[in-house]
Amino acid sequence: MFSKKKCKNCGEKISNSYNFCPYCRASLKDRFEEKDWGFLGRNDAIDEVKLPFGFNHLFNSLVKSMNNQFKEIENQTKTEQKKTEVKKGGISISISTSGGKSPEIKVTSFGNIPEFKEKEKQISKKSKALKLPVSDSKKFSGMPKKEPETNIRRLSNKVVYEIDMPGVKSVEDISIIQLENSIEIKALSKDKVFHKIIPINLPISDYNLSKGKLVLELDAHE
Predict the structure, then answer these.
(1) What is the pTM of this model?
(2) Is there a contact between 88 and 113 (Cβ–Cβ < 8 Å)?
């Protein structure tokens, strides 16, 4: 005699061969049988996987090696990014004059090059320390002008102008004005005015008058 099971929906006894109740058409499968147990069926849940001997060590070594490779690639990428970073910048020098006052020099660096920031400090320090002689313009009016003989020397970090001014005895008789793109020099001797325009845009680092010769040093750091 065939074994029977009871329909949980209507209570009728039904043969085990049925998947649906012939009375109420309810499904006769157990709840766990109605679940989707995946590709391996109901027993595909694995609590523990036992790998062959030595495979765990090999697998861990492989993972460790891959992590090291990923870190190396990341470090190389960061290094390449630093190498390819574009460096650009410069230094802006502005010179302003007003009345009979000494010219004011303002130095400003810009960009992402650290050397320019250091250069800004050096030039600003020198320009603030050096005071150029500026005489009253009326002193030079009405006198004949002459361009003095000039010798130029280029050293490693500066340009030296040697300007012959015979008859000029004191720095008080000299006017040195640093303009935006040039340097204007006037010097009063007994019967004439020496007048010189130097078409160069370099800061004056030092000057000296000795035996009728004016020596002018310009900062030419690269």
Answers:
(1) 0.44
(2) yes
